[in-house]
Amino acid sequence: MLELVQNHPEQAEPILENHLFANPNNLLTIRLLGLTKRNLGKFEEAIALFKQAMELDPDDAETSNQLALANRESGNLHMAILYMANAVDLSPTAQNWTNLGKLFIERKRLDSAEFALLEAIKIDPNFASAQYELSLLYGLQGRWSEFFPQYEWRLRYFDDLNPDIDIPIWDGENIQNKRLLVHGEQGCGDWIHFARFLPIARERGAYVVLHCPTSLTRLLLPLVDEVVDGREQPPQTDFRCSIVSLPWLLNATRP
To answer: Helix crossing, 110-123 with 94-106: angle to 10°?
Structure first.
């Protein structure tokens, strides 16, 4: 049933409503129907169901979590924070602390957000979601020397940002007389925004090869040694890195 709720909530809704009519205090049915209503965008109905579930089982952290998310989606960030804080009290997991931190960021309560995210990281230092959200927080605060190294967590949080290229990833070591392949990850905007760091890599002695969209070839070629069409197989080089990682790897972390 959970799979039906997640993938086909419009089919799950009448089944669960009929079951709840016959069994009005069935806690599992109430929770599943609440989730169904959330997935259908019926947030007020979802909130009412999750509140009913909380009355039956006040100690269930997941229901409080769902109440927080439904309130957020309905536009009530204040109540979302209250319910997520309750979820943290009931179950102080890295995920719940991270969810609370994200809500604080949305509410522009950045000090509280930082505290919540750091608590999540204390529980699980490898929890990529918390680490990534912390990087966004640093960016909002203009803490660029902290933002850029922290933002490297995006590569662990978003699996699709890592291209399938069999070349060692550059970690900031000496690149004098080395061939460095620079590839993209998120779009043309990032190429243009971070292009100013390409000449710095050349100043450090690297032979810089770009693997970029055809539309940017003429714009970026003067900044590097070689450009390869992004639709083609990249050449073999000593190292590779994302253009977004250049500020961190070059220790040139001004925005």
So the answer is: 170
Tens digit of each residue's pLDDT (9 = 90 or more) over 39-53 = 999 999 999 999 999
- Per-residue pLDDT tens digits for 131-190: 999 999 999 999 998 999 999 999 899 877 777 788 999 998 999 999 999 998 877 888
Residue spans of the domains in the chain: they are 2-157, 161-249
Pick the CATH number of 2-157 from 1.10.1660.10, 1.25.40.10, 1.20.1290.10, 1.10.490.10: 1.25.40.10
